[in-house]
Amino acid sequence: MTERKTTTAAAGAERAKGPRPFAAFEWMIAGRYLRSRRREAFISVIAGFSFVGIMLGVATLIIVMAVMNGFRSELLTKILGINGHMLVQPIDQPLTDYDAVAARLEGVSGVVAAMPFVEGQAMVSGPAGNFGALVRGLWEADIRRLPLVAGNVRAGSLDGFDEGGGVAIGTRMAQQLGLAVGDNVTIISPRGAVTPMGVTPRLKSYPILAVFEIGMSEYDSTILFMPLEEAQVYFRMEGKATGVEVYVEDPDKVGAMRASVEDGAARPAFVTDWRQRNVTFFSALEVERNVMFLILTLIVVVAALNIISGLTMLVKDKGRDIAILRTMGATRGAVMRVFVITGASIGIVGTLAGFLLGLVVCLNIESIRQFISWLTRTQLFDPTLYFLSRMPADMDSGETVMVLAMAMGLSLLATLYPAWRAARLDPVEALRYE
Fold first, then answer.
1. Where in this chain does the entry annotate a coiled-coil region (predicted)?
2. Fewer CB near the terminus (10 Å): N or C of the chain?
């Protein structure tokens, strides 16, 4: 008898406490509210718009951030693959001991390569026209240590570059000049010989030994490589170099290596790194990336507001059902959890769908671009404007997780107020006029 009373008391206490949080019946009711009936079609339409808004907002954020990351990564790779991570230039006296300086710099810990070079601006001329170019003189061995150049020769060869007396140009420069391997390109420098009639420009023709394609239109159309000794003769810098380009193992640590590189040069030198030379460009990219993130986040916020409006209308429509549940013993917490599950389901499923959509688009971004260009018969991604010949997309795992967490968090927060209103509903008032 005593045991029966104890069991009855325990059961009563359990009923008084109510069902455990997120019980099966709460999920069942939430699922029922998500499935529309003809009378509730308008509410389901709002829920559908909320789902689509969350999905498109998350997908757009992921795609745009991936494309921005891809732009930065590709541009950084191309810029650092040609210009070097650090630049050592002479102070007070010309750089005549460039080979010795380069050898000493290559002995510095963390330095991969040191390349002496001669550089100058000139005009290149061909049958199809003429325009400005950056002429850079390098040893053949050093050019072969530039994978973006040596690994992307589209025509001709770099073999015997030092003794060939010719030059290597980019594909876009060759197209614009109307030249090919074996043709002669004329290089014109305004700093020519001084005569009684004034300064006459210096003109000289060189055979084209190789045509390369870096993949960055700015470089493929403006850079011309020639042998170091030939460049010294052309720019009247016999026995001298413009500077030494230094390539390091980790480009992000150039600041910490500045002192060791200055010591390794063992002569008065002015050292700059890639961040100083491109600070404006990469700062503009970073600002644009942050602003795009803030603007596109508003899409997710608007979708979350749609969840609030949809749930608010659902609470008003289900007032009688809520009152009946309360009279049957459902606690305020249970009612609140039902509507939290209803709204959060829209947000979470929409977020995951947006992630899958963004992933598919990022993995096929170039094919999609080509298809849209073919469909609209327009050049959707002009390399002359965007510097790169293909559209890149680089998804960052940490950034993607942050976007997903933000979308899910906003979706969950959007459910709290309507769910709280539902839990505060008075059963007596709701059933008074029924």
1. none
2. N
